[in-house]
Amino acid sequence: MRTRESVTAVIKAYDVRGVIGVDLDAEFIRETGAAFARLVRDEGETTVAIGHDMRESSPELAQAFADGVTSQGLDVIHIGLASTDELYFASGTLNCAGAMFTASHNPAEYNGIKLCRRGARPVGQETGLATIIDDLVEGIPAFDGAPGEITERDLLGAYAEYLNDLVDLRGIRPLTVAVDAANGMGGFTVPEVFRGLPLEIKPLYFELDGSFPNHEANPLEPANLVDLQKFVVETGADIGLAFDGDADRCFVIDENGDPVSPSAICAIIAERYLQERPGATIIHNLITSKSVPEIIAENGGTAVRTRVGHSFIKNEMANHGAVFGGEHSAHYYFTEFFNADSGILAAMHVLAALGGQDKPLSEMMARYNRYAASGELNSRLANAQAQVERTNAVLEAFADRTESVDRLDGVTVELAGTPAWFNVRASNTEPLLRLNVEAPTQVEVDALVEEILGIIRA
After folding, report:
1. Could you list the active site residues?
2. Which terminus of the chain has a smaller tally of CB atoms within 10 A, N or C?
3. According to its UniProt record, which cofactors does this protein need (predicted)?
4. Residue 186: φ, ψ to 5°
């Protein structure tokens, strides 16, 4: 048996994440596989699809998890190397539970698991992870039936065909597309998905390498976009696409080498949906720009605001019958993709919009950028208590300038007399306090960032 403290250190709000050899090892993962199998077996599941990214530890952990699953009588379909959204495709089309081994954008020493039920339905703290924690702490009873079987299946081609059926790019004008795969799974999926389309792909860091020798696979950090920004300009590309390690997120760079806000991407994809489905519901998390719900409303849609995190977004997608959901971190969710997130599917929507008209990307996206924003700024603090204390200090400092405060996820402060707002929240996956600021001008954003970070990092 394990202590609750050690288990909850790695089983987070919506996934499993930790350092290999410190937080995670094969035995822990085998037990987690057994606990997950018990959870979904009790719900009538018989099979779990398992995929893994290119990290050195991923194949061993995926096999250990499979051993745990089969020890509880469930079968395993092992799809091998895959992006996270390919695993969701497997869960959705094979109608089975799923487990993806990846630490997404985290550094090389990390690994983890993203879990889902059949149809790619999420497993979060309130929808199964708490039960898994209890099993790991209390001990997993032995299963007295026959063990399950493991089979292997290659789904890359079927996954690519499915995406191309959702967004038909065959008729767009030819585009030159620079792609930074960050040595992650985008280098595996992009060539197959974009094969035969009117796209000239300029590849950057397509070699699969979980040590991330060129830069971290986290495009949310501006430093990790620099190589692609230069590459877009050097190659004369119409657009640049930057994927994270497991390729479920995609950031966009325009032809000038400038980043396109994920909120602007949310807005244009939402608009595309609302043109075909008037009155539809669109989900956005509370960190996206105010421009997102504004544009949804202007196009006759219904905007629903939710917490940060894929399990929360996916649940809200299902609860509200939403057709699309977007996050500030470049996670984009689609009703036709089992309410799951797919970086490459989001990219295909942008390519369809860009290739369906003659303007360059910067001009096409200009009308979606209404406010200045800080992007997500991270501060590493000693512990959860320090995070609470610094957050309260920020609230106190702004008390006489506050229009409203909500605590849907961290604290979101609307400032009086201006559209400006900021959010301070603890990360669900790392020991960080995250800050996002939006205001009408960059000068106002910079002033707010300086003041708030001065308090957080004091």
Report:
1. 104
2. C
3. Mg(2+)
4. -60, -30
- Contact between 361 and 267 under an 8 Å Cβ cutoff? The reply is no
Q: How confident is the model at residue 429 (pLDDT cuts 50, 70, 90)?
A: low
pLDDT in tens, 392-426: 999 999 999 999 999 999 999 999 999 999 999 99
Question: So what's the pLDDT on residue 13?
Answer: 81
Average predicted confidence (pLDDT) for the chain = 96
Our CA angle for 235, 53, 333, nearest 5°, is: 75
Q: How far is CA 122 from CA 15, 91, 151, in A?
A: 10, 11, 24
* Tokens of residue 456, six digits: 């957080």
Round to whole Å and give the CA distance between 376 and 390: 17
At residue 403, φ and ψ (nearest 5 deg) are -85, -45
Burial of residue 111 (CB within 10 Å: 0-12, 13-18, 19+) is buried
pLDDT of residue 14: 83
The domains of the chain, with CATH numbers, are 4-155 (3.40.120.10), 176-250 (3.40.120.10), 262-368 (3.40.120.10), 372-456 (3.30.310.50)
Q: Which amino acid is at 257?
A: G
pLDDT in tens, 35-86: 999 999 999 999 999 999 999 999 999 999 999 999 999 999 999 999 999 9
- For residues 115 and 40, what is the distance between their CA atoms, to the nearest angstrom? 11
* β strands within 311-380, DSSP E: 324-326, 332-334, 340-341, 372-373, 377-380
By DSSP bridging, strand 259-260 and strand 121-122 are unpaired
Phi, psi of 103 (to 5 degrees): -110, 20
Does the model's pTM come out above 0.70? Answer: yes
Half-sphere exposure of 92 (CA within 13 A, CB side): 21
Cα distance between residue 66 and residue 85, in whole Å = 19
Radius of gyration of the chain (CA): 22
